[in-house]
Specification:
Number of domains: 2
CATH architecture of the largest domain: Sandwich
Order of helices and strands: HHEEEEEEEE
Radius of gyration: 24 Å
Strand order of the largest sheet: 5-4-7-8-1-2-3-6
CATH class of the largest domain: Mainly Beta
Bound molecules: copper (II) ion, zinc ion
CATH superfamily of the largest domain: Superoxide dismutase, copper/zinc binding domain
Structural class: alpha+beta
Strand content: 25-35%
């Protein structure tokens, strides 16, 4: 009985669609009202850093979209005192023990490695973070190059903290040494 009802309903719907001059296939392919669409404007993103290359380095980085720039805040522990290269790398993949799975610096516009906040540098060049004598780096800065949405979004890419200082000159890495922490940037609320 239920089957018969459904068949009748289908015939009715098909008949109506044809009467309306709408091809059936199009009607079937139309997206459901509750279909999930990717966000067009991401306001916040978060990255949890885990140790790499046998280090004890860990922490978090938070990104907040402001007008014309992105606020980057973070807290990282387990570092050697001093400055450490800090970049967005191309692939959101921290699976390799030395984090080489994250690929090179995020560089969609084919620029050279350099200082942060320059259109002539890799988009992922964020310079250095500085650890105090206890190996703790707490930082907060603005960057006007990176974006959380759109074609050049940093979401689903990786943050890498390096063992050494980024000299902002040496190609293509800044000579920043081993990758001591890695995390994937994810959309946050
Ligand atoms: Cu790097
Ligand atoms: Zn770079």
């Amino acid at each position: 009985m239920k089957k018969l009802f459904l068949s009748l309903l289908l015939i009715f719907v098909a008949g109506k669609a044809m009467a309306d001059g709408m091809p059936l296939t199009l009607a079937a392919d139309a997206p459901a009202a509750n279909a999930i669409t990717p966000p067009t404007s991401v306001m916040k993103a978060l990255c949890t850093l885990s140790p790499a290359s046998g280090s004890q380095v860990q922490g978090w980085v938070k990104f907040t979209q402001l007008k014309g720039s992105v606020l980057v805040e973070g807290d990282v522990t387990g570092l050697a005192p001093g400055k450490h290269g800090f970049h967005i790398h191309d692939k959101g993949d921290c699976s390799a023990p030395d984090a080489t799975s994250a690929g090179g610096h995020f560089n969609p516009l084919d620029q050279k490695h350099g200082a942060p906040n320059s259109v002539k540098s890799h988009m992922g060049d964020l310079g250095n973070i500085k650890a105090d004598s206890t190996g703790h780096a707490k930082f907060k800065f603005k960057n006007k190059i990176i974006q959380l949405s759109g074609e050049y979004s940093i979401v689903d890419r990786a943050i890498i903290v390096h063992a050494a200082l980024d000299d902002e000159k040496t190609q293509p890495t800044g000579n920043a040494g081993a990758r001591v922490a890695c995390g994937v940037i994810q959309i946050s609320n």
